[in-house]
Amino acid sequence: MVKYSVIIPVYNRPDEVDELLESLTHQTFTDFEVLIIEDGSSRPCEEIVKKYEKQLAVSYYFKPNSGQGFSRNFGFERAKGNYFIVFDSDCLIPPHYFQAVETALNKYGFDAYGGPDKAHESFTDLQKAISYSMTSFFTTGGIRGSKKAIGGFHPRSFNMGISRAVFEKTKGYIITRMGEDIEFSIRIQANGFTTGLIEEAYVYHKRRTSFSQFWKQLHFFGRARINISRFFPSELKPVHTLPAFFVLAEGCYLISPWIHLPTFYLGSAALGLFSSAIFIDSTRLNKSLKVGLLSVGASFVQLTAYGVGFWTELGKRIRGK
Which residue windows are transmembrane per the record (predicted)? Predict the structure, then answer.
């Protein structure tokens, strides 16, 4: 029996799967299997998977489309390991990843864990900017949790692991979209399991490759936060409303020149300071003025799209839809 089973749901991403599997061939800790779950794709990756059969213990499964959550359950049910690890198909895994997980689990014994994401040096400038906006203190990146808040950390499904006992108790995902990973994490904790962040178990997460794709993704995330509150009302906390109020502030700023000019000047100064802080911080971290500039745009897209999605779904909920 292997120690870890890696579950990767895929939908029309053969090129990403190729890069992900290639990164897994460089692991320093190799006691793991890989299960590729093709979720009804029209561009299957079976031939890509076959390339790695001599380098990895990899299995390929094709199933009708049901969404990521239920596809992960499909993989859990067929996994041989004692611990299940979930990656999104658009991730690259650094060579030390499994060793970092092994070390942390031996030390802390987490029933479930999550890891952070970073930008790989091969990413485009826009991908690096989007990665910055998703991990920055100045955006919603600071909401996810931290090492200091181990008991309250909610793993996210682009990079997370659960013990076999967690799956057997919770039965995995019960919704497949609109915040399925948050709902699952909350239920894991509600069942008395321990969760934690393993900082060294990071992945390189490509996310989206254009601002329009990024907008759609974050708009969906904002809607998902309201959807989660249908199941767990107490999990809608004041911090989750910050992007929604950011959108309100943007709206007030846009109409302020016709209503109250001093407010417009004050808003301009605040937006300038906020943008400058993002630009300086991202430029420092990425050592690139271009990435720093793109990070300003990515951060505004992230906060605005999330906030608009939040208000959109909240309106539907109020109307009883």
Answer: 258-279, 291-311
Amino acid at 257: P
Instruction: Name the nearest CA neighbour of 13 among 89, 79, 70.
Output: 89
287-312 per-position pLDDT tens digit? 999 999 999 999 999 999 999 999 99
Alpha-carbon distance of 88 to 305, in angstroms, equals 22
In one-letter notation, the amino acid at residue 54 is K
First to last CA, the chain: 47
For residues 79 and 162, give the distance between their C-alpha atoms in angstroms, rounded to a whole number. 12
* CB-based contacts of 318, cutoff 8 Å, min separation 6: none
Cα 121–chain centre separation: 19
Q: Nearest CA to 218 among 81, 143, 310?
A: 310
User: For the chain, what is the mean pLDDT?
Assistant: 90
Report the pLDDT averaged over residues 173-189.
85
Q: Which of 90, 14, 16 shows the shortest CA–CA distance to 47? A: 14
| Domain spans in the chain, listed from the N-terminal domain onward | 4-115+155-209, 214-318
For the domain made up of 4-115+155-209, the CATH class stated in words is: alpha beta
Alpha-carbon Rg for the chain in angstroms:
20
Q: Confirm whether pTM is higher than 0.90.
A: no
> In the structure, what pLDDT confidence band is assigned to residue 156 with cuts at 50, 70 and 90?
confident
> What b/e sequence results for 76-92 when a residue is b if at least 16 CB atoms lie within 10 Å of its CB, and e otherwise?
beebebebbbbbbbbbb
311, 310, 71, 86: which is closest to 177 by C-alpha? 71
Confirm if 145 and 305 have CB atoms less than 8 A apart. Answer: no
In 3D, which of 26, 49, 27 has the Cα closest to residue 36?
49
Own/partner pairs, 50-54, CB within 8 angstroms, 24+ separation: 51/18, 51/21, 52/21, 52/22, 52/24, 52/25
